[in-house]
Amino acid sequence: MIASDLDGTLLRGDGTLSPRTLRALRTAENAGAEVVLVTARPPRFVDRLAAATGLAGTAVCSNGALVYDIGRRTVVSSRALSVAVARRVATAVAGAVPEVGFALETGNQVLYEPAYRLRLSEDIDAELPVPSLADLWLTDVPVTKLLAWSARLDADTLLAAAREGAGAAGREVQFTHSGGRGLLEISASGVTKAGTLAELCAGRGIDAAEVIAFGDMPNDLTVLDWAGIGYAMGNAHPAVLAAVPAHTVSNEEDGVAHVLEGLFGPPAAP
């Protein structure tokens, strides 16, 4: 199995999948490998990528909260974050870290309160404001992630402050970040990319030793550590480069393709 993150890993900085990398993925599939996308992104982003590239198969989305059948556009399994837990964590974090805004990711939409001012141009159609922070907790839609955003703090600093400030409430969730601008991602306790990928592999009879993983950010560390071999991208976060022994070149240099071509031979013809 080839398990790859998307942003900063499989995709270039402009969000595209290069022809070389797409050919390398096809070559690996033709050799019998399954390609699984393992991303912080929600299914709606994977749908757009699939439409542009023809990628199919399975994606582990929202940092492990969802398993998504790309071809059928169907969520196969999910591990939701309780809104009550999200509220307790947000209340604790807000009390410890001033000027933090919050949003709820549902897989289909991002519900955000006024203090959450992060806007993603590629996701604008899915962003839905609510009048106040209190209104955020009234949703009856299953939640995949609580998002916390700071205009003042970078993601690493916000992550450390939120973990400390959350106190006992922090034991009910999983904190991480994927390099977004001052953006912290909070999932249900025990939800990680590696945990969900391991369950997926177990159902397929695939051992960790048979998995080759690629990633660049702290939310990828669980997968890079669990897989038989994990590759940190040349552009990876310093903590990832320090923790992961195997490195490849950057996403802009088609680092994933660089490794796959060495393993599976030259890419198939365009």
TrEMBL record:
Keywords: Hydrolase
A GO term for molecular function: hydrolase activity
Classification via Gene3D superfamilies: 3.30.1240.10, HAD superfamily/HAD-like
Coiled-coil segments on the chain, per record: none
Domain of life (superkingdom): Bacteria
Listed Pfam families: Hydrolase_3
Protein's recorded name: Cof-type HAD-IIB family hydrolase
Organism this protein belongs to: Streptomyces yanii
